[in-house]
Specification:
There is one protein chain. The chain is an alpha+beta fold and 590 residues long. Helices cover 57% and strands 10% of the residues. The chain contains 20 helices and 10 strands. It has helices at 13-17, 24-27, 35-55, 58-64, 69-77, 96-109, 111-124, 126-131, 134-146, 266-302, 314-342, 348-378, 384-392, 401-420, 429-434, 440-454, 468-492, 500-527, 534-563, 566-579, and strands at 151-154, 170-173, 179-189, 196-206, 212-222, 228-230, 244-254, 259-260, 304-305, 308-309. The chain has a 4-stranded mixed β-sheet with strand order 1-4-5-8. It has a 4-stranded antiparallel β-sheet with strand order 2-3-7-6, with helices on one face. Strands 9-10 form a two-stranded antiparallel ribbon. Bound molecules: tetradecanoyl-COA. Tetradecanoyl-COA binds at residues 107-108, 111, 114-115, 118-119, 122, 153, 155-156, 162-165, 189, 267-268, 271-272, 274-275, 277, 280-281, 284-285, 288, 348, 397-399, 403, 407.
Length: 590
């Protein structure tokens, strides 16, 4: 796979923000498409559009709840089943940026196809790419890359969704080195269609103290293996043409050659796979929003009410403008992230943010486009209701947005929290924080970062001068954020894990900061580009102004709520609701 051709590793941008740090050279200039990336993207997106006109009818596939086999074959022939597979295994060897752009093109045309292809390559055989040995890759990748064989990712179980570690499927080692798998997986995309299943199961291990413990391991299971069976196709709200079924494993014997990576390391393998998958949802959302904005604009320009086209009314303009800014902000997030992945960045924080932000902005955009088309949008002959049904899942799967906010906050806090443990050695913590230079010997890493923060630059020096106001607000907010992170760690200690509303506030602040940073970087690149027209520069400047002001307000609201009494209302109201099994009284009661 062509990801990170440099072989170098660079730190996560978002992880650095938790220390109040931004390495400007890492975020400026915004990663650009090279000439050869542009050529490949253009050739592939043109080919996809041509194929779509001839062969894809998303409304019909939705109605039939099926993707015709010849369409799946055609997608394989276009190379869309092996986008990131190395050319030596018969794939296209695209890097993360190109994968995001090309995948997004097809995902927006038909989200059922997007999910089928995403489940196949962004998660289905991703563990094989990341961790598989040469023999496994040679055996499987050529057929997976052409779509001759489809793949599925089997993690979720009836009792294990968000809490992925609690899976019950068990793989027991036999005397001959094979494993016998028993268990059940739920809501598996491509189940039944796929021939290749990446399956996570618990295996027995002995820890350093000699105790028996269970850990998660990763196996390749083939459809034809005796004991593999499938449930009925699920009757879903949306993405109806994609296949979703339960998968059952009844004494399925798997050779040792089918273990992916190290035994017992399966949880990390699964999480790393999901990091890539989450990014695909972000990139799919960008193209989805562009498609929706085109529909909404057409409607607004063609529909006349009160003697004028509705595009000329303020409340329609407010919606068109919001969809455009949603799109631009998400595009900046996704392509900053993929550009840095190509340079070797660890990206679990960033991909979670792309998924959360992209799926929520996509949903908001569809809601606004539906409102513009109004009565028409509610009728099945128009595409809005299908797009709405198809898009709702993105807030749920590959980690619910709630779980990913918790992940963003807790994984981000972990770095400064480890450093802050040093503070336990100091008698008066708050004094030491006020004067870290005096405490240098004890505070080590933490103190160094605190000092850097105190003398930190007041603006992003590489930002375009016309964006100075937003740049200053960003650096000010970043400082507030890192101090809030420290204060939160000190206030809650280990109890932060059970304090989800504090996590929500931290996560929302993180998301807004990353959005502002990515938008400022991309707009700077556009404004510095002499080949971009004045009109395009005006358009992105206006969108940047709107995004940064809105994002700053969101940041400020979440920052305030971290310490205000507002969030204390929530558990109290919710307790009443739980005690009353719902709302609890009627207008006729009192
Ligand atoms: S597939 C199923 C999706 N399921 C999930 O996403 C499960 C969500 N749950 C989790 O992610 C985990 O259980 C959480 C951890 C996060 C809750 N990267 O103690 P821990 C490490 C790297 O926090 P837990 C589907 O939906 C962590 O550092 N490492 O664990 C298919 C620690 O390591 P260490 C990570 O409290 C849909 C260790 O793991 C990550 O149990 C089809 C333990 O961590 C990470 N992210 O819970 C989709 N997380 O021990 C098709 C944790 O070393 C898509 N760790 O400190 C197609 C797209 C279509 C687009 C179309 C658009 C229009």
């Amino acid at each position: 796979m062509a990801t990170n051709p440099t072989g170098k590793e660079i730190p996560s941008i978002v992880a650095g923000m938790f220390y109040g740090e931004i390495i400007e050279d890492e975020v400026f200039p915004f990663p650009q498409f090279s000439e050869s990336q542009k050529e490949t993207a253009k050739a592939m997106t043109d080919a996809i559009q041509k194929f779509a006109v001839a062969s894809i009818d998303a409304a019909k596939f939705d109605k039939d709840s099926k993707l015709p086999p010849e369409v799946l074959k055609g997608l394989g022939e276009l190379g869309l089943c092996g986008l990131t597979v190395g050319e030596e295994y018969g794939g296209l060897g695209l890097d993360s940026t190109l994968y995001a752009r090309v995948f997004a093109e097809i995902a927006a045309i038909d989200p059922s196809i997007g999910v089928t292809l995403g489940a196949h390559q962004s998660i289905g055989y991703k563990a094989l790419i990341n961790e598989g040995n040469e023999e496994q890759k040679k055996k499987w990748l050529p057929r997976l890359a052409t779509g001759e064989v489809f793949a599925a990712f089997c993690l979720t179980e009836p009792g294990s969704g968000s809490d992925a570690y609690s899976i019950k499927t068990k793989a027991v080692k036999n005397d001959d080195g094979t494993f016998t798998i028993n268990g059940q997986k739920l809501w598996i995309t491509n189940a039944g269609l796929a021939g290749f299943y990446t399956v996570f199961a618990k295996t027995d291990h002995t820890d350093a103290q000699g105790n028996k413990v269970e850990k998660i391991s990763c196996f390749i299971v083939e459809k034809e293996m005796p004991g593999v069976s499938f449930g009925e196709k699920e009757d879903k709200m949306g993405i109806r043409a994609s296949e979703t079924r339960a998968v059952y494993f009844d004494n399925v014997r798997v050779p040792a050659a089918n273990i992916i990576g190290e035994l017992g390391k399966g949880f990390k393998i699964a999480m790393n796979v999901l990091n890539s998958g989450r990014l695909s949802i972000g990139s799919g959302a960008v193209s989805g929003m562009k498609m929706i904005l085109a529909l909404a604009t057409k409607q607004a320009k063609e529909r006349k009410q009160f003697g004028d086209y509705i595009v000329n009314y303020g409340l329609i303009q407010e919606k068109l403008s919001a969809i455009a800014t949603n799109t631009y902000a998400t595009e900046c997030l996704v392509y900053m992230t993929t550009g840095k992945i190509n340079q070797g960045m660890h990206f679990e924080h960033e991909s979670a943010i792309c998924k959360v932000y992209g799926s929520e902005k996509l949903w908001d955009s569809i809601d606004k486009a539906t409102q513009i088309a109004a009565g028409n949008a509610y009728m099945k002959e128009y595409p809005y209701e299908r797009i709405m049904r198809d898009s709702r899942i993105h807030l749920i799967f590959e980690g619910t947005n709630e779980i990913l906010r918790i992940f963003t906050a807790l994984s981000g806090i972990k770095g400064p929290s480890d450093d802050l443990k040093e503070l336990g050695k100091i008698a008066d913590v708050s004094k030491a924080l006020q004067d870290p230079i005096k405490s240098l010997g004890v505070l080590t890493n933490f103190a160094k970062k605190r000092i850097t923060k105190q003398f930190t630059t007041k603006t992003l020096t590489k930002c375009h001068p016309s964006l100075e106001r937003h740049s200053q607000k960003f650096t000010h907010s970043l400082k507030d954020f890192s101090v809030s992170v420290e204060n939160t760690i000190m206030k809650y200690g280990k109890n932060i894990i059970g304090n989800e509303l504090a996590q929500l506030r931290i996560a929302n602040m993180t998301i807004e900061l990353y959005v502002q940073l990515c938008v400022l970087s991309r707009t700077t690149a556009i404004l510095n580009n002499k080949d971009v027209s004045d009109s395009d520069k005006d358009y992105v400047t206006l969108m940047t102004e709107s995004i940064c002001r809105d994002s700053h307000q969101q940041f400020t609201k979440n920052h305030a709520r971290l310490t205000s009494s507002y969030d204390k209302l929530t558990p109290k109201i919710s307790k009443h609701v739980a005690e009353r099994d719902g709302f609890g009284f009627d207008i006729i009661d009192f």
